[in-house]
Design brief:
about 240 residues; alpha+beta; Jelly Rolls; Arc Repressor Mutant, subunit A; 2 domains; 5-stranded antiparallel β-sheet; 4-stranded antiparallel β-sheet
């Protein structure tokens, strides 16, 4: 279950949450007055590990900005089973499709660890757009940020060497810091287009290099910069 700010046992300061979103991602690139209006109309919400934020095919609703933690992003073409494609970073926003198309959700967001988000309801987005039609342009920019992230995923998947694809997946989860990232080898393999055996071998190699620490159903990123350098080298 999700918890509003005053009910979660792991409270964070509202000012800190707002500062995170103002200093990262889509909202950072908006005018200050627009930033403040988005945050004023938003609710700070906590999700427990494994909890679904929204799901594939859900009715249209608002947008979520990731404040802290990590989220699993699952999607697929219509008629196919959604699969894990990426892990969202603080500052990222998702759910803008409902505002643009009024259609059902086209992806699933699920908290990977205890996660704080800022939620702006669809009704509030509509009120802002009714008062100022140019606001639709601001919200539309979210989709471009997400397209940029998708281009990065596609680029990483085009690497021939599976070890470099696996390193890229882990590097994209760098913001979790030196905390266990609760991803199974199968989930890492899904994102990296690699077999569990390939993931297992790569994790052992990266651990020997001191880049990660691998445990059952979790990986701790110790040196994200080394993973980045390795993942971006030519095959």
């Amino acid at each position: 279950m999700c918890y509003p700010l005053n009910m979660s046992p792991n409270l964070i300061k509202r000012d800190d949450a707002e500062a995170t979103l103002q200093q990262n991602g889509w909202l950072f690139h908006q005018q200050e007055a627009f930033q403040k209006e988005v945050l004023r109309r938003s609710t700070l919400v906590h999700f427990a590990p494994g909890e679904r934020i929204f799901g594939f095919g859900d009715d249209p609703a608002g947008i979520y900005g990731l404040v802290s933690g990590a989220v699993m992003i699952n999607t697929a073409p219509p008629g196919h089973t959604p699969q894990l494609i990426n892990v969202g970073a603080p500052g990222a926003w998702a759910g803008e499709g409902s505002f643009l198309t009024r259609g059902p959700r086209s992806l699933e967001l699920r908290a990977l660890v205890g996660t704080w988000t800022m939620y702006l309801p669809l009704e509030q987005m509509d009120e802002m757009a009714d008062a100022d039609p140019t606001v639709a342009h601001n919200f539309g920019q979210i989709i471009m940020a997400n397209v940029d992230a998708l281009i990065r995923v596609i680029h990483d998947l085009q690497r021939v060497d599976p070890d470099r694809r696996i390193a890229a997946v882990l590097q994209r989860a760098r913001w979790i810091g030196e905390h266990p990232l609760p991803l199974t080898q199968a989930e890492i393999g899904t994102m990296a287009r690699a077999s569990r055996r390939q993931v297992n071998i790569a994790l052992k190699r990266f651990a020997d290099y001191g880049w990660v620490k691998s445990r059952y159903r979790s990986v701790t990123i110790l040196n994200a910069e080394k993973l980045r350098q390795y993942s971006t080298q030519d095959d």
